[in-house]
Specification:
Strand order of the largest sheet: 1-2-3-5-4
Helix content: 25-40%
Number of domains: 2
Structural class: alpha+beta
Shape: globular
Number of helices: 6
Distance between the termini: 34 Å
Length: about 260
């Protein structure tokens, strides 16, 4: 289907994702399966402006494209059966793979995994939050730092059969205050790779040009200024930061 048809062709609803906190629907545009989140179905939040989550989701996609890493599936704004909303191409993840997991502490996986935190389950057994140690997931962690993701849950990471990792549900991003909450803390203090630094530079360059102009239609001036500052700070430090501020370091629930 031509790209323009995704914006102009009829969007038909086929189901609803009832576990989502905001109105979230499955739909189809021709042969394409999509997720549709109408602005009218967004629940009010105490710390984010009303009616802006869809714009943040599209902004996250624009950052993903600027990075060049395809962290976020194609996402755009368009009209739909319930009004304007965010539309995103559906991705069918591999049920046999899991990029983030809770495992018994006595049975931690070997190399290729990073431990994040320990706790206890309802029976008092010690468990550990782990995530895979892969370039794809590292890139997502860098992306989350840039967009100030306040809600990187384990189930917001889609493990694809070919090893690619998509991130979804980016409504709680781009706040002008520090809000980072993520399960991807496994590289704390480690130096960024050349590829990761180059990605940050591409975002910085884009913010001075077309990317900056596009985001100005979606985010406030304060949010864009904070985005520019985060990129500069991350590039200057050259490392994955430690948790900071009074906000919890991880989202709740974790999945």
């Amino acid at each position: 289907m031509p790209a323009t048809d995704l914006v102009t062709a009829e969007l038909t609803l086929t189901g609803r994702l009832t576990t989502a906190s905001n109105a979230t629907f499955l739909g189809s545009i021709g042969d394409a399966t999509v997720v549709y989140k109408p602005v009218a179905g967004e629940a009010p939040l105490w710390d984010f402006p009303d009616g802006a989550l869809a714009y943040r989701e599209v902004s996250a996609y624009l950052i993903s494209e600027a990075l060049g890493w395809s962290v976020v599936p194609r996402t755009w704004l368009r009209d739909g059966p319930l009004g304007e909303g965010m539309v995103q191409l559906w991705q069918e993840q591999d049920p046999a793979q899991r990029a983030v997991d809770l495992v018994p502490t006595a049975d931690l996986p070997g190399s290729g995994w990073r431990s994040v935190l320990e706790g206890e389950d309802q029976s008092g057994q010690s468990i550990t939050l782990v995530h895979e140690d892969t370039p794809a997931l590292r890139r997502m962690a860098v992306f989350d730092l840039i967009v100030n993701n306040a809600d990187r849950k384990g189930d917001h990471i889609l493990a694809m059969a070919d090893g690619h990792r998509y991130g979804v549900d980016h409504g709680l991003t781009f706040h002008h205050e520090h809000k980072l909450r993520t399960v991807l803390w496994g590289w704390l203090g480690e130096a960024l790779t050349d590829e990761e630094r180059d990605g940050i530079d591409r975002v910085g360059d884009g913010l001075r040009g077309e990317l900056g102009r596009d985001l100005a239609e979606l985010l406030s001036a304060d949010e864009i200024a904070a985005l520019i500052a985060r990129c500069a700070q991350l590039r200057a430090s050259g490392r994955f930061p430690a948790p900071s501020g009074e906000m919890p370091a991880v989202p709740w629930p974790l999945f």
